[in-house]
Write a structure and sequence with these properties.
The chain has about 400 residues and is mainly beta. The chain has helices at about 290-300, 305-320; strands at about 30-35, 35-40, 55, 60, 75-80, 85-90, 95-100, 105-110, 125-130, 135-140, 145, 155-160, 170-175, 180-185, 190-205, 210-230, 235-240, 245-250, 255-260, 265-270, 275-280, 330-335, 340-345, 350-355, 365-370, 375-380, 380-390, 395-400. Strands 1-2-21-20-19-18 form a six-stranded mixed sheet, with no helix packed on it.
């Protein structure tokens, strides 16, 4: 699962942003600097007829407003597809995993609310490990619970607090069970109607849930916080700045990718934290348009609650400031074959563009995913995501990735 907790690669943040390049260049420029490979991309490698395409219609669609209760979701927090096509869906509101076959037929439910083995207090993330083992993270219990592909509970690991005090959240789990961890959230609420970026402690954890090394404090996501009232009536509302700065992570196998979106640069690290590759792409950031601003505000108001929560939401929206330009990207994932997918900002209502880089950092080209699909997994030939229909009913969908045969 992808997380948008802030991270940067320490001193690597001082590297200059990519400037505009010659789009006619035939391929990346590769050089080494102090043992780090630097890959500078000017143009995509795919030629006509080589580009991948994500099918507009899903091959599996799970989710209904009425009818089978097993197909009704309250809040889909994550979803992954196993190698045999089984779809595992985490419902974070009812604290339950549900399994469906490749055709979307219900198979079984796994877990429930509680603090016992295989139970959850706050089911948030799913991590798919070798052998189709599924690790489900309970943020309230600070536990990773491991299940077989058939849904049998195997064991659980309780994560230590980050730096001994902060509630942990795994950003990704390596194949050997070790993980990259950051605090779940900043527990201190300071009134800051102007965007601010806190620093975040980043750590490496062992498979036993122990903090094994610190990666230092790094910049966080650009946030806006409003605090009002006092005593029992004190209320704090915090949210990310629209089109704000953030850092994204992707973990797969033994690789960690980190991207700070103030520049178009990906930093690849080994599980021990050592930097091995920098991947860059030339280009200029896109402007934030009036249509972007209007669409953002409309979307936010459409999901506001009632009463005090609606009033707090309106105060927050009135305080928001939009940047002049969008950051270079809005998300980051590693697929099952080691390709990096960098999510770009879509136009309102349009499909989402993703830049795809191979495992060596070469820009292959751009692929689009259906509008409104929140991608949770990218496999060798499929994408899993969550899509909400016009009735606000969540669906979990699987779309095929169509790849032309190599020439």
């Amino acid at each position: 699962m992808q997380s948008t907790v802030a991270l940067a690669a320490g001193a690597l943040l001082v590297l200059a942003a990519c400037g505009g390049g010659d789009a006619r260049a035939a391929g990346p420029t590769v050089r080494d600097s102090a043992g780090i490979r630097i890959v500078q991309n000017e143009a995509p490698a795919w030629k006509k007829g080589q580009a991948w395409r994500v099918a507009a219609e899903p091959v599996t669609d799970v989710g209904v407003a009425e009818g089978d209760a097993n197909q009704q979701f309250a809040r889909v927090s994550d979803a992954v597809r196993l190698s045999d096509g089984t779809l595992m869906v985490a419902d974070g509101q009812v604290n339950e995993l549900r399994a469906f076959d490749a055709q979307g037929r219900y198979l079984r439910s796994i877990g429930r609310s509680g603090g016992g083995p295989g139970e959850f207090g706050g089911l948030e993330q799913l991590h798919l490990l070798p052998g189709d083992t599924v690790a489900a993270f309970d943020y309230l219990g600070r536990r990773l619970s491991f299940f077989t592909p058939a849904g049998t509970f195997v064991r659980s690991v309780t994560l230590e607090p980050v730096d001994g005090t902060l509630r942990p959240r795994p950003l990704g789990v390596f194949a050997d069970g070790s993980m990259v961890v950051a605090p779940l959230f900043n527990p201190i609420f300071r009134n800051s109607p102007r965007p601010t970026r806190d620093t975040v402690a980043l750590a490496l954890y062992s498979a036993a849930g122990r903090q094994s090394a610190s990666l230092g404090r790094v910049p966080g996501r650009e946030m806006v916080t409003l605090v009002s009232g006092g005593g029992a009536d004190r209320m704090a509302v915090r949210d990310a700045r629209p089109f704000g700065l953030a850092t994204f992570f992707a973990v797969h196998g033994s690789r960690l990718l980190v991207g700070e979106n103030a520049r178009y640069e990906l930093v690849e690290r080994r599980p021990d934290g050592a930097v091995v590759r920098l991947v860059r792409r030339s280009g200029d950031p896109q402007a934030v348009t009036k249509r972007d601003r209007e669409a953002y505000l409309e979307r936010r108001r459409g999901r506001a609650g009632d009463g005090a929560s609606r009033g707090a939401e309106e105060r927050l929206l009135k305080s928001l400031s939009f940047p002049e330009h969008k950051p270079y990207f809005a998300g980051l994932r590693l697929d099952a074959e080691g390709n990096a997918w960098v999510e770009r900002h879509p136009a309102p209502g349009a499909d989402t563009p993703w830049d795809v880089f191979d495992a060596e950092g070469r820009l292959l080209g751009t692929v689009t995913t259906p509008a409104g699909l929140r991608v949770t997994q990218i496999g060798p030939d499929f994408i899993v995501g969550v899509w909400t229909d016009e009735l606000d009913v969540p669906h979990v969908r699987v779309h095929r990735i169509q790849k032309p045969a190599a020439r």
